[in-house]
Design goal:
By secondary structure, the protein is mostly beta strands. It folds into two domains: about 150 residues, Immunoglobulins (Immunoglobulin-like, Sandwich); about 80 residues, Immunoglobulin-like (Sandwich). It has five helices and 20 strands. Strands 4, 5, 6, 8 and 11 form a five-stranded mixed β-sheet that branches. A five-stranded mixed β-sheet has the order 14-20-19-16-17, with no helix packed on it. Strands 13-12-15-18 form a four-stranded mixed β-sheet, with no helix packed on it. The chain binds copper (II) ion (CU). Copper (II) ion (CU) binds next to strand 5.
Amino acid sequence: MKDRYFVVAALLLVALSAAACSTKNTLLPLDASTTTAMDQDTMDQGTMDQGTMDHEDMVVEENSHDHDHGEMVDVSGVANPPEVSVTATPDGTGGATLDIATSNFTLVPANPPSDHQPGEGHLHIYVDGVSIAMVHETTVHLGDLSDGHHNIRVTVSTNDHRDYTLGETVIAASTEVMTTGGTAAQEADHTLALEVMDGMVMGGIQRLAVSVGEVVAITATSDTDDSLHIHAYDLTLELKAGQPSTLFVEASIPGVFEGELHHAGFQVLSLEVS
Ligand SMILES: [Cu+2]
């Protein structure tokens, strides 16, 4: 009798997890050090609310597996396209302050949502390739990063969350920062390394089986700029050509999940969580 109750409970859990997959608010990146990285008091609550940070339109695109390049606005034909630069200064207590400068660009809040206006928009901030915030401020404090080396990337976004690009290249600035005085770096139970060269995954699709609750560090290197997307977990890791980037995934959802290169459009890894 007891066993049967256990099975029912387990099935319910699976059903709940499956339901959670379609709810964007539960699909936040699972690395707590990056999802909680924004210091609330320096930020406009409207833009920092976790619910509005997600890109609803992007979620819809991922669900429909639409991988055309409709999510960018190419401004290479514009006389003075937007520019961005960023510097990061560690605060000594596990965080860093970003000083961002833009030109040929009007920063407007991402919330309330507004339609695309050329030359207008906001900034997307990535820490170690993971999208953590949308801001319209030029001074941004990141709190609670894990100690160590972090890559900070700022991209210039349209009001409707598309990247401004010059041709295929996203208009972006990046910098490195070494933070100290915060929490120890996250430890992984498993690591998975993959390398993409000439449009192929070296050694074929990388497969890994893990248990629910374990943490996987996925390190990816590509010979072209791309982004790695883990389906269902809705995690994205930005890849700069030739630079290894690492994404921590806490295996909270049971199932088999594909990791795919967004621009190249092919599967590079398979994560089996049970
Ligand atoms: Cu946005």
